[in-house]
Amino acid sequence: MLSLFSKLIKENLLLAFLVCFILLFSSTAFASKTALIYHSNYSDAHTNVKAQLEADGYTVTLSTTGTVDENLINSYDVVWDMKYNNSIGSNGKTRYQNFVQAGGVLVLVGENNQNFSNNNQTIEAFIENKLGGTVGLVGNTNGCAYNCTNNNNSNTITTTNTDITDSDYGSDVAVYPYGTYFTGDGTWVAKNGNGQVLWMRWSGNQLPSGYTGAAYITFDINQFESPFDKAKMANLISDTYENFLTVVNITPTTNQSSTITTDKARTGNGVKMNVDGDGNTINIEQTGENNFVIGTDWSSDSQITGNSNTVNIDQGNVTTSGNSGNNGIALDITGNTNTLNISQGDYATDTGDHRLWLDIDGSTNTLTLQQRNNGTTSSEHYMSLDLDSSSNVITMQQLDNGDKTVFVDINNSNNAVDITQSGTGEHFLDLTLGTGSYAHDVDISQTGSGDHAARVDLDGYSTDFDLSQTGSTDQDYNIDMTCGVQAGCTLSTTQGN
């Protein structure tokens, strides 16, 4: 604990999604793990925590500002608030709430209640008013500063963190004769020799429905200083986030991988088309290598049934010279005013191995789809799209070298979806919009030399969703979002360098 004199001279997620309920969001989507430490420049406490975070592979930002960043979830996986002498404020509490809701790990460090009760009460209010927990501060809340002699951890934390002591600090330091613990309905993480809780965590079903992160509270700042047992404290620091932040690794499912493998094995030339209906305008050009248009079972007629469809298909260096790859395209369009412009390998140096699979069954769709690479024969692009509804406007591109894969399943009406995959990286996207009565407006961009992947499932009244994955560092993102209000919800995420 800070001496009374020392303390007297020391100076002092995006908006909430309305009532959107985020069912699953892995903030460890950042391939490069990131952490933020708010601190007050006291001793080496914050630099010790920083060192352990960096040892665990995190890029750490230090900040002495008294204002909590309003956009934490787009920038950080872990936040440590070590500003023991500065209350987080109402805006800070809301922003921390959003951060925990969206999957972030938050650690709040309090101080002795004699001189810093305002900050401690703010922490208590945050747990109770924002996270729905209960916590009681007992005595002076000196925390783990001087009289923690047997700081054993609960079974929820690894057993390597036992016996965090202050034995290295020396016996000549005064000890305040007050109770030094708190109570609450969270999971205890560390206790003193008397069995009193000095660290507590709220996570899982201890948080409101849909919250996927974790929040810790502890007292006080001195427990992180060098004189204490750094090895054991380092293990505890690591466990605060390693138990909750698992790196997301988004890859095609077993069924998706099987589908890609099966579709890539198809070969054939020519067009098998069965157009039945009125007012269709179809232009197909195929030159180059092994191009074909065929039904979605890759053997029957392509079909296009019903009403005012306009379909333009180009494949394989149609307007330019060069080598062309083994392209595909399968259709099955049933009904009503669809307009499709599809181009695969229509590029001078394209040598890609493309497939494009469509099954629409809807009305008034406008789709512009394109696949091509820049001349690398090992680069493969794959698309699969199943709409089953009406009034969609969709633009999808897969450009440049590097494998690109998109699966889209909409089953809803009035969507506007704009997806771009470009750059030399290998990109993967699995998007399902689901059912609902209102429009989705989705913009997704995966660009750069990094290998980026995302799995997104939006349902209900979600009106706006933006995801940008850029740069040379691999990025992964996973969200399953249900919005519960007709006015809709907005979520924007940027990953990359």
Note down, in words, how this protein is organized.
This protein has helices at residues 4-9, 45-55, 89-101, 117-130, 230-242, 254-264; strands at 21-25, 34-39, 59-63, 78-82, 105-110, 135-139, 180-184, 187-191, 197-203, 214-219, 270-271, 275-276, 281-286, 292-295, 304-305, 310-315, 330-331, 339-344, 353-359, 366-371, 380-386, 393-398, 404-409, 416-421, 427-432, 441-446, 452-460, 464-470, 475-483, 490-496. The protein contains 6 helices and 30 strands. It starts with a helix and ends with a strand. The chain has 2 domains: 4-242, Rossmann fold (3-Layer(aba) Sandwich); 254-496, no CATH class. Helix 3 links the parallel strand 4 (78-82) and strand 5 (105-110). With 497 residues, the protein is of the alpha/beta class. Residues 1-31 and 141-179 have low confidence and may be disordered. The strands form 6 sheets. A 9-stranded parallel sheet has the order 13-16-18-20-22-24-26-28-30, with no helix packed on it. A 7-stranded mixed sheet has the order 1-29-27-25-23-21-19, with helices on one face. Strands 3-2-4-5-10-9-8 form a 7-stranded mixed sheet, sandwiched between helices.
